[in-house]
Design goal:
The structure holds two protein chains of two kinds.
Chain A (H helix, E strand, L loop, with lengths): L3 E4 L2 E4 L5 E7 L5 E7 L5 E9 L2 E4 L6 E3 L9 E3 L8 E8 L9 E2 L3 E5 L1
Parallel strand pairs in A: 2-11
Antiparallel strand pairs in A: 1-3, 3-8, 4-5, 4-9, 5-6, 7-8, 9-10, 9-11
Chain B lengths: L2 E4 L4 E4 L4 E3 L1 E4 L5 E7 L5 E7 L5 E4 L2 E4 L9 E3 L8 E8 L8 E3 L3 E6 L1
Parallel strand pairs in B: 2-12
Antiparallel strand pairs in B: 1-4, 3-9, 5-6, 5-10, 7-8, 8-9, 10-11, 10-12
The chains are: A mainly beta, B mainly beta.
């Protein structure tokens, strides 16, 4: 049981480049989310999905796009990378949302934009 | 909106000392409360949770009680070990706002010395 798998683990981008952070889960979870972690700020929600075909914005969505074509996958796209997007990104999934169930987190992607 | 305020770190303790990490919250509804732990270089792991007032969550010697009257969910452990060194995040989730997504505190770095 792999849980939540994120790729790549590390990435360096130049300003203006685009890329996709991959996230896959094998637990048949309906809820999936993307967070970014910055020093002293905890984790902030970027985008989330409550099921295939349904996505919505979180606290800090600007500069990021998501789609959810399958239950298993929830990729995060950076359209034109900026230094302010240097961060550690975590994908998470949950059976029915965090109210009664915790979220399972991936091991993260460390992104540096130069 | 929802928010979580956590005790500022870092916290440094000697092995077998008593640990308290304070957490208070603001929520529009009746949230579920969580403590997550992040070991170096890893993703977040659910440590414990409580879903209603007066519930006590416990795991691995850690405990936290959901106090609605003081809007608090303080993390405690009677005797810490070196292996408890990690970053601890308090979080909440409710049905309002971003549909059961997690709102995190800023995290508290704990270092336990032998």
């Amino acid at each position: 049981n792999a849980g939540v798998t994120q790729t790549p683990k590390f990435q360096v981008l130049k300003t203006g480049q685009s890329m996709t952070l991959q996230c896959a889960q094998d637990m048949n979870h309906e809820y999936m989310s993307w967070y970014r972690q910055d020093p002293g700020m905890g984790l902030r929600l970027i985008h989330y999905s409550v099921g295939a075909g349904i996505t919505d914005q979180g606290e800090v969505p600007n500069g990021y796009n998501v789609s959810r074509s399958t239950t298993e996958d929830f990729p995060l796209r950076l359209l034109s990378a900026a230094p302010s997007q240097t961060s550690v990104y975590f994908c998470a999934s949950s059976k029915q949302g965090g109210t009664n169930y915790g979220y399972t987190f991936g091991s993260g992607t460390r992104l540096t934009v130069v | 909106g929802n928010s979580v305020t956590q005790m500022e770190g870092p916290v440094t303790l000697s092995e077998e000392a008593f640990l308290t990490i304070n957490c208070t919250y603001t929520a529009t509804g009746y949230p579920s409360l969580f403590w997550y732990v992040q070991y170096p270089g890893e993703g977040l792991q659910l440590l414990l949770k409580a879903t209603k007032a007066d519930d006590k969550g416990s795991n691995k010697g850690f405990e936290a009680t959901y106090r609605k009257e003081t809007t608090s969910f303080h993390l405690e452990k009677g005797s810490v070990q070196v292996s408890d060194s990690a970053v601890y995040f308090c979080a909440l989730s409710d049905l309002g706002g971003s549909a059961r997504q997690l709102t995190f505190g800023s995290g508290t770095q704990l270092t336990v010395l032998p």
